[in-house]
Amino acid sequence: MPTPQLPSEVLAMMRRGVSAIVASRDADLRPSLMRAMATRVGEDGAGITVYLARSQAGQVLQDIAANGHIAVVFSEPSTHRTVQVKATRVQVRQAGASDEAAVARYLASMERELAHVYIPAPLTRAMLACRLEDLVAVSFVPEYAFDQTPGPQAGTRLPGMRA
């Protein structure tokens, strides 16, 4: 099955490093979610990695391990432009030294993004403070993507993606 392609403007937003919330669900369909501490999106969007703090994201990580289902909302704070990507297969590993640059880039990007809505950098750094040894990298290929920007198009499938 070919990998669906995210629209280039969506990829650009996601790759820049915007707010990301990671969700899954348990066997009874109860949702779990946690803020990503960092993200890394490949140039073609086929590979997305979100970093979760193990010490804070226990339920989400447990649900992802149990069923492989993940949904991630990427949102630009200054415009509320939002996209949700979903997958049913993930790879989970301990973050390591090779992830350090991605985590640092994400923090710098979030400091710039949140400055647009008057959140000072020290608050952003406090919100995303984490130790590399506490981070878990969850990687996946998006299977579904939806516009979730508030407004009349919210919930519509993005072009080129499965419904």
From TrEMBL:
Q: Which Gene3D superfamilies match?
A: Electron Transport, Fmn-binding Protein, Chain A (2.30.110.10)
Q: What InterPro entries does the database record attribute to this sequence?
A: Split_barrel_FMN-bd
- Output the SUPFAM superfamilies linked to this UniProt entry: FMN-binding split barrel (SSF50475)
Q: What is this protein called?
A: Pyridoxamine 5'-phosphate oxidase family protein
